[in-house]
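ugh ok fine here u go
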Amino acid sequence: MSNKKHLSLKNLENLERFTKINLINSLTGYKPANLLATKNESEQTNLAVFNSVCHLGSDPAMIHFTLRPHTVARHTYENILSTSYFSINAITSSIIKQAHQTSAKYSANISEFDTTGLNEVYKNNFFAPFVEESPIQIGCKYLNTYEITENGCLLIVAAIEEVHINEELIEEDGFLNLEKADIASIVGLDGYYKPKKLARFDYARP
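structure:
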């Protein structure tokens, strides 16, 4: 068994800035890799990679994601506040380079769809665009923002209004075969991985 390195809070605080950021961001392991697509009232689109989208409830169907403090321009959040609508699009291993490029700080009048070559598509008169290359697309409506008082981060809650899923990914009981979809995950802020299913168990009972 390998030896474990112990880092106290003081050790962590004294680490070089980017070393600390990379270490803390990697601690919690694999996270979902998604592109959030929005559009403002002037029809300007925006696309940004997120690793914090999580299931919040099934009935009603809701998700949440987190944002750093709104102390600088956050185009995704500002578009959501002004229009209420956005889409969540799963990232496959074939588009990770383009997806990661959306994390660059482009000005508000530049669409990441244009700079990355990813394609926007509109469905069912839903206001926000979807990413055409994504096999799982979720149309969401903003519900609320909760500020995390300890660090100023924001937790955004939204309702799922519609989904578009490649049909071959849906198993008989509704479970999605993400491995078949070639879905990627993220570790930290810039590490992309391809997960593999190890097992799926029956509902656990005592």
